[in-house]
Amino acid sequence: MQNALLVGVSSQMALQRELDVIANNMANVSTTGFKGRSTRFEEYLMPTASADTFSGADRRLSYVIDQGTTLDLGQGAIEPDGNPTHVAIQGEAFFSVQTPQGVRFTRNGAFEVSAQGNLVTSDGYAVQGEGGPITINPQETGLSIGQDGTVSTNLGVRGRVKLVTFANPQSLSNAGANLYASTAQPQPAGIKGRLESGALEKSNVKPVLEMTRLMDVNRTYAMVSSVITRLDDLRGTAIRRLADVA
């Protein structure tokens, strides 16, 4: 009976983790370039006991192990907005930006020109060009960003936005502020990514699907909780009856 309770608790812990992931997805439905995540679980079979005193073979117990989350790299809807500093990625690429914690990666192309003349993200992080940071003087006009990331003004080419890809994008970890961190070395995107100027990629989270998942998790959690409660009551009853003096 104790093992059954532990199995139920392991299921509840896994469901709590899934609920956290769903909540984060729902909170970022309107976040530019956000990529949703889904949970991955694995069945863990408890090894059998090795004692020779048992009359019969032990029954294998199946627990639930949280194996992390999977990043949904599906393309989000691209919506034009006419802003020349805004760009959306079509393909598998990521922007490379410089943060106080080091280089990070994002799909959020809501760029702007800072007071210092640097091309930065909406959070103020410098957008990395293939030759370093991209700087635009206040006197320059006619700013545009081409499909290949080339940044031009009335004075000519000012740089080229750096686009990168990863051999295993699932290794990317969330770093906050819609950024990703990676211990793997990024690779030039090449034909795997191109830009659409004057547009932004919306979140790829599907609210209806997430709400369905949320209801399923709540129902399953309630069911497991009910089973645990009944098992606990049964154990309490058994202990009381065993303690009764005939």
UniProtKB/TrEMBL annotation:
PANTHER family assigned to the protein according to its UniProt record, in alphabetical order: FLAGELLAR BASAL-BODY ROD PROTEIN FLGG (PTHR30435:SF19), FLAGELLAR PROTEIN (PTHR30435)
Entries under Pfam families matching the protein: Flg_bb_rod (PF00460), Flg_bbr_C (PF06429), LlgE_F_G_D1 (PF22692)
Flagellar basal body rod protein N-terminal domain mapped to chain residues: 5-35
Record-given protein name: Flagellar basal-body rod protein FlgF
Quaternary assembly: The basal body constitutes a major portion of the flagellar organelle and consists of five rings (E,L,P,S, and M) mounted on a central rod. The rod consists of about 26 subunits of FlgG in the distal portion, and FlgB, FlgC and FlgF are thought to build up the proximal portion of the rod with about 6 subunits each.
Annotated localization: Bacterial flagellum basal body
Residues covered by the Flagellar hook protein FlgE/F/G-like D1 domain: 88-152
Similarity field: Belongs to the flagella basal body rod proteins family.
Domain Flagellar basal-body/hook protein C-terminal, chain residue ranges per copy: 197-240
Swiss-Prot/TrEMBL keywords: Bacterial flagellum, Cell projection, Cilium, Flagellum
InterPro entries for the chain: Flag_bb_rod_N, Flagellar_FlgE/F/G, Flg_bb/hook_C_dom, FlgE/F/G-like, FlgF, LlgE_F_G-like_D1
Organism of derivation: Methylobacterium cerastii
